[in-house]
């Protein structure tokens, strides 16, 4: 667990603390401000379970010991009502949270209407339409906390290794990952602008200033895919490294992914328990990761009964089939040029391939990283831009990078939501981002 500062604020009645701090206030009377998660009574005793964002705690009221008025208020309380609870902190081994409160006072801030999300099962569509409320649920809280930890780990990893964070633009004049998945908007008198599908090209400019750089932010793809792995707005971490070839790039990736997983194991034990994640599978995640070539992947798929042909790209089913062969994420390397982006470096021995690798997560969570060495030769890059039918004038600045001290360089992009889905063991990426944007959903 990460160490969080423990301090109390003061109200007229006493100390206001967060539930996560209760262990520092045993024997003292404190005040908790939060929401009613559950309530029940048994004879002369009432139990209130309160959540305040930092945790859950049970407050116990006993007739004759707690003030009489709290028993009247108890009857009015509905689930999710906002309340202030006062009580004396007790250590309690039987409580799932380790501590409880002997109830000494209760105030109602707001009585909630009948709460639409009940303990029973709801359909996903209903829950998605109530995402603004669903976020309060235990599993959803746990997922967001894992996300929070992984986001911090991303920044720590790169900071510790001397990478400089470069915040790349979201409004861009060009496509970088295929022109069929662009969100566009009118940009004043300057024509059409697109929401960034990647910040990579801008990161490439920045390596010439800093050597090692990364970005971390939202990216957009107008993908008409309705799968459990696709969002139209997702977060990507991209790294770009001067003087790295594709092998150096791959080593960095396996170190990075292992770091994220180990951090989640170290600091999100509670959350992974709530999510019932089998953590023994995550414990195995350490470098090196297995590597196969695209050619070998095709062979493997054909052996498994797929009719995938050389030159085809992989869909979700193929990725799952490949991942079944390995306990760790697996790199699939050296894809055919014709199915990859224009900026990838031609394979020195086989001109029909590019020096790239996709990283496929275990347990069927799909491709979590796409990366490659970049084409650093001016003429070859220009030819590729023309081959793709891209407007060369928009790429002059990018071509410039191959005119003023060009160097071999590589980089990669990791999809945050797919990575979180894998770490948390939740099958669909829609639960790993607070308000998912998908083909058929932009509400709430
Ligand atoms: O298209 S990628 O494979 N690669 C790039 O965008 C490069 N420009 C990255 C780079 O080298 N700097 O996307 C990278 C990852 C991919 O492996 C997925 O994990 C994730 O981004 N990704 C997505 N996640 C969720 N939804 C969608 N639609 C999606 N598309 C890619």
Description:
The protein is an alpha+beta fold. The chain has 2 domains: about 10-110, Beta Barrel (OB fold (Dihydrolipoamide Acetyltransferase, E2P)), CATH 2.40.50.140; about 125-430, Bira Bifunctional Protein, Domain 2 (BirA Bifunctional Protein, domain 2, 2-Layer Sandwich), CATH 3.30.930.10. About 30% of the residues lie in helices and about 25% in strands. It contains 13 helices and 18 strands. The strands form 3 sheets. It has an 8-stranded mixed β-sheet with strand order 8-12-13-18-17-16-15-14, sandwiched between helices. Strands 3-4-5-7-6 form a 5-stranded mixed β-barrel. A hairpin with a 4-residue loop joins strand 4 and strand 5 (about 55-60). The two termini are about 35 Å apart. The structure holds 5'-O-[N-(L-asparaginyl)sulfamoyl]adenosine.
SSE blueprint and pairings:
Blueprint: E1 9-10, E2 15-16, E3 29-42, E4 45-51, E5 56-62, H1 69-76, E6 82-91, E7 99-110, H2 124-129, H3 131-134, H4 138-160, E8 164-165, E9 171-172, E10 184-186, E11 192-195, H5 200-210, E12 212-220, E13 233-242, H6 246-267, H7 269-274, H8 279-283, E14 291-293, H9 294-303, H10 316-323, E15 330-333, E16 356-361, E17 366-373, H11 378-387, H12 396-400, E18 409-415, H13 416-424
Parallel strand pairs: 2-3, 5-7, 8-12, 14-15
Antiparallel strand pairs: 1-2, 3-4, 3-6, 4-5, 6-7, 9-11, 10-11, 12-13, 13-18, 15-16, 16-17, 17-18
Helix pairs in contact: 4-6, 4-13
The structure holds 5'-O-[N-(L-asparaginyl)sulfamoyl]adenosine (NSS).
């Amino acid at each position: 667990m990460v160490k969080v500062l423990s301090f109390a604020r003061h109200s007229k009645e006493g100390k206001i603390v967060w539930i996560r701090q209760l262990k520092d206030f045993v024997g003292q009377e404190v005040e908790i401000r939060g929401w009613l998660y559950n309530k029940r009574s048994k004879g002369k005793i009432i139990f209130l379970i309160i959540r305040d964002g930092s945790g859950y705690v049970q407050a116990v009221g006993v007739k004759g010991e707690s003030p009489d008025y709290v028993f009247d208020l108890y009857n009015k309380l509905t689930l999710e009502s906002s309340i202030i609870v006062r009580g004396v902190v007790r250590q309690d081994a039987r409580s799932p949270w380790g501590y409880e409160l002997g109830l000494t006072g209760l105030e109602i801030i707001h009585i909630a209407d009948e709460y639409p999300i009940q303990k029973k099962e709801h359909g996903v569509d209903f829950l998605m339409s109530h995402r603004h409320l669903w976020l309060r649920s235990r599993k959803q809280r746990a997922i967001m906390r894992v996300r929070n930890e992984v986001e911090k780990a991303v920044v720590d990893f790169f900071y510790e290794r001397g990478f400089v964070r470069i915040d790349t633009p979201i409004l861009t004049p060009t496509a970088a990952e295929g022109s069929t998945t662009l969100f566009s908007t009118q940009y004043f008198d300057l024509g059409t602008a697109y929401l960034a599908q990647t910040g990579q090209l801008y990161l490439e400019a920045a390596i010439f200033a800093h050597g090692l750089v990364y970005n971390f932010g939202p990216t957009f793809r107008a993908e008409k895919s309705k799968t459990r792995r696709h969002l139209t707005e997702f977060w990507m971490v991209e790294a770009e490294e001067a003087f790295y070839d594709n092998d150096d790039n791959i080593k960095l990736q396996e170190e990075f992914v292992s770091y994220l997983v180990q951090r989640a194991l170290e600091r999100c034990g509670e959350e992974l328990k709530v999510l019932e994640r089998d953590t023994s599978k995550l414990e195995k995640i350490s470098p090196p990761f297995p590597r196969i070539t695209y050619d070998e992947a095709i062979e493997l798929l054909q052996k498994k009964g797929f009719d995938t042909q050389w030159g085809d790209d992989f869909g979700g089913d193929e990725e799952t089939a490949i991942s079944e062969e390995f306990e760790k994420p697996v790199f699939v390397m050296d894809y055919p040029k014709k199915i990859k982006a224009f900026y990838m470096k031609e394979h020195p021995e086989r001109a029909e391939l590019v020096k790239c690798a996709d990283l496929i997560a275990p347990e069927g969570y799909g491709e979590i990283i796409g990366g490659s060495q970049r084409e650093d030769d001016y003429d070859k890059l220009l030819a590729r831009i023309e081959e793709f039918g891209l407007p060369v004038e928009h790429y002059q600045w990018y071509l410039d990078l191959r005119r003023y001290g060009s160097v071999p360089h590589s980089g990669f992009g990791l999809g945050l939501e797919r990575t979180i889905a894998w770490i948390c063991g939740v099958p669909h990426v829609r639960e790993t981002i607070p308000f998912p944007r998908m083909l058929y959903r932009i509400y709430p």
